[in-house]
Structures are given as structure tokens and as C-alpha cells.
Fold:
Amino acid sequence: MIDAEFVRAYEIAGADFTNAGRASTGIKETLKNMGLPSALIRRVAIAAYEAEMNMVMYARHGTMTLHVTPQDVTIDVRDEGPGIPDIALAMQEGYSTATAEMREMGFGAGMGLPNIRRNTDDLAITSEVNRGTALVMRVHVG
Amino acid sequence: MSDMAETGVAPGARGGTAGAVSLAGVRAAVNGVALWCPDDSPAVTGVVAADLMSDVLVDARPGYVLVTGLVNVQVIRTAAIADLAAVVFARGKAVPADVVDLARQMNVPVFASHDTLFEAAGRLYALFGGGPAEAGARRQA
Structure:
């Protein structure tokens, strides 16, 4: 188990479907190496993966920063992109603005943000149209 | 959030044999070919059939097998993120080498079947004695 604060940042490139998911896989491996419970790791990994896919699909560029303390695992997600005009609408299951190409990759079902909320204890979303979106996702340890 | 695999208990199958089903049993049920599977003895806790990976992330539990008609690297990444036991690619679709290579790297067993998604899901539903009813109950929670 971790006894101090741990921070690691991951860069995400928009439209890079080949590498989409690598950052989340790295986060999962890092948490595994820390010896955190597998159920907690899975929740964080799923939330991170959905956020990463959202950035790959919609944003030009983004970062995911993993913060781990003895109390919480937090992922700070920030992107430069189109933003979300109506966050409440985007949180509804099934609502999606995905293109056919995104759906061919198996994403864009309108479950991304709801799935992030389902797998986190705290979720804060802020967004500015034509600027970008920021998510702070937190899962409590223990 | 409780994980059935954490407790070693398979989801309740209606009069079924869940918990006794191995990867070898899944492969046989769908007349599958192993594209990469170093060990087919691990137990499978359930099955999820979908082409949309976000749906998989909602419905699957650790130890489930994913049956899908989608063939790309995101299927493997999704399976690894969600702690799935294996992937069955249905519909006899050609599976590119990069997908199998990633499966090997990420330690995700992969099989190919000529069954349609409907047929493969039906055979596995029967194999699990009616299937894991618990997933539907969870969705409404």
C-alpha cells in the first residue's frame, strides 16, 4: 500500500485510435504494483479508460494525471477540444454525438460519462465550448 | 460494489453449472479455435455479448468472457481493463495479427468462432444453465 503521495501524468493525443487505452492500462498497472484492492483498481481503470476514449474521440489533446494518496485515487483529466455544451444531457445514458467512425471502434454508445460516474465516488465536470473539458474523478481507498 | 470473482462465487445460474465452466468449455461450446490461449483451464464466471465496448464496461464482471462481432485492438484493451477471462470473436471474421499480438502482450486469451453473435451467445447462455441473472438485476440497481 502507498504511504505517501504519488503523481504521474499521461499525455493523450486526439484521434490516435491505435494507442487509445494505453494510458489507462498504465494507470491500472501502476495501481496494481502499489498493491491496491483489485475491485478498486478495476473501477479506476474503467473510469480512466472511458475518459481517455472520450479525449481520443473528441479532443485535440489532453492529459490525465494520476494522484494517489493513502485516502484516495484521483484522476485529473483536462483536454483542449470542443467542450460539452450541455453537461446534464451528456450525463444521460444513451446520449451521444459520436460519429460512425467512433462507433466502428466500439465506442460512442452514450455510456461514457454515466459509466465514469458509476465507477467513481466523486466526479466534477467543467467544460467550456470550443475550449475544452476538465474532469476530476475520485475513488476512495478503503 | 461487490465482485463475484473476489469471493470466488460465480453468478447464480438458474439450475446451471456456472463456476464449473472453463475456457476450454467455452471454446468447445462455440466450436471455437484458439488464436492465443496458453491455458484453457481457468474458470469463467459469466458471459457478456456486445459490440459496443462501453456496454461491455457496464455489464461485464471480472472473469466474464466477451463474445463480440467487433474486431479491433480496442476489444482487447477493453477486456484487459475490465479483467475479463477471454474474448470470442464471432461471425468467422478475420482477426488481424496486431489484435492477436496485443492479446498476447496483455495476457487476454482469444478465440475465433464461425457462429453468429446470436448463436454463440445462445450456446453460452445454455452452457451457463440460463445465464447469469445477476447482471440484469444489477443494471436496475
Observations:
- The longest strand of chain B covers residues 64-68.
- Chain B touches chain A through 25 residues (CB under 8 Å).
- Confidence is low (pLDDT under 50) at residues 1-18 of chain B.
- Chain B has one domain: 27-133.
